[in-house]
Write a structure and sequence with these properties.
Blueprint (H helix, E strand, L loop, with lengths): L5 H13 L1 H7 L4 H22 L5 H12 L8 H10 L8 H7 L1 H8 L4 H21 L10 E2 L3 H24 L10 H25 L1 H6 L2 E2 L3 H5 L14 H28 L5 H23 L1 H5 L8 H14 L3 H13 L19
Parallel strand pairs: 1-2
Helix pairs in contact: 1-3, 1-6, 1-7, 2-14, 3-6, 3-7, 3-8, 3-9, 4-8, 5-7, 8-9, 9-10, 10-13, 10-14, 13-14, 14-16, 14-17
């Protein structure tokens, strides 16, 4: 059994507290891939924590995210630089994400031990993410003090910085070095790279859909203003209660955008050679969870617009893991699981035209 030092064990504990879903995915990985992806996720989560902190002013977030991005790649003086970064930050948040942020030094102490290739790849993408997040903090609030993305282009750009970068990072870590050492033709690798961004965008748009009201509550609307205007409403002045059908159409458009990217993510997984079983599972679980989350959101619009939590149950997670683990070597079965889940996205309560679960896994 591999012995783990104290700091890495603390990093593992942080992962379990800040992300139930990603902690599940991580269990399937081994070796450098496991260590690299776990630490990469925590470093990305630190940037996300800064971006989401409601007590920080916009100019403070800009400065803080820029300073965080400048920590990458870490040099020999990283301990002093991280200490200065934490010491200069006016952050009063609490909870698991705040605990992780204040433990940035521990995460870095393990991060700098990674193989040089992993250190380079992760540094490039986390820096790009942090600086991209910083650029969006410069947007001025609109009506009701809510900051809004303007159009499809801004939506895609924002999702690229916060999630598309992660897709590229993961693909590089798995197929350009590390445990696998590549092993793919240039054509096969390029095919994966070309779909990496869509994978990230699909997952992020799923989060935007299910977290719409929560994001608005902290002053952000990631669904573009143009989506609302094209349905004849202005989200700055027109509330949900008096414009329920129009809001429903806006949500559907976002879900359709997410599904288009998740369709590309399915092709990404099918392109992964079967010998990479663990990486296939690592990617397939969040894909299926995302599609089922969209199905839940589309069938529970009223709950979503009331600000209630819309997320799949633990029993659904267990079912996804069980069924996909049995199917992982078969592209046909993987596609069956995906298509079966996708059919339920537009299914409304009481509609039996798209059954809850069909086929060999009943």
């Amino acid at each position: 059994m591999e012995l783990k030092n104290g700091d890495f064990k603390i990093c593992e504990d942080h992962l379990g507290r800040v992300s139930r879903t990603f902690a599940i995915n991580m269990r399937v990985l081994r070796g450098d891939a496991y260590r690299s992806l776990l630490l990469a996720y925590l470093l990305c989560r630190i940037a996300d924590t800064i971006e989401d902190e409601p007590t920080m002013a916009d100019d403070e977030k800009i400065a803080c995210l820029s300073a965080y991005g400048d920590l990458f790649p870490p040099g020999a003086d990283w301990p002093e630089r991280v200490d200065r970064f934490l010491g200069s930050m006016a952050f009063s948040g609490k909870g698991p994400d705040a605990d992780l942020l204040f433990d940035t030094s521990r995460v870095f102490s393990e991060f700098v031990k990674l193989p040089p290739f992993a250190l380079e790849v992760i540094s490039e993408r986390v820096r790009e993410m942090a600086l991209g997040m910083s650029s969006f903090q410069r947007k001025a609030p609109g009506g009701n003090g809510v900051v809004m993305l303007e159009n499809q282009e801004e939506l895609e750009s924002y999702c690229y910085y916060v999630a598309g970068t992660v897709g590229l990072m993961i693909t590089d870590l798995f197929f350009s070095g590390g445990d696998h050492g590549g092993g793919l033709s240039d054509e096969a690798r390029q095919s994966l790279v070309s779909r990496s961004v869509s994978f990230g965008l699909g997952l992020q748009m799923t989060n935007i859909a299910k977290d719409y009201m929560g994001d608005r509550g902290r002053g952000w609307c990631y669904i573009p203003r143009s989506f609302f205007l094209e349905e004849g409403i202005d989200p700055a002045v027109d509330d949900v209660s008096g414009n329920r059908p129009a809001y429903g159409m806006v949500l559907k458009r976002l879900i359709d955008n997410a599904l288009a990217h998740l369709d590309e993510a399915l092709l990404y997984i099918l392109d992964i050679p079967r010998r990479y079983v663990r990486y296939r599972l690592f990617c397939l679980w969040p894909l299926l969870m995302a599609v089922e989350t969209l199905a839940l959101a589309s069938r529970n619009e009223d709950r979503l617009f009331r600000g209630e939590a819309v997320k799949i149950a633990r029993s659904d997670v267990k079912r996804i893991i069980r069924n996909s683990s049995c199917s992982i070597l078969s592209n046909r079965l993987i596609r069956f699981l995906y298509d079966n889940a996708r059919l339920r996205v537009d299914r409304k309560p009481g509609d039996r035209s798209a059954p809850e679960e069909t086929g060999m896994f009943d």
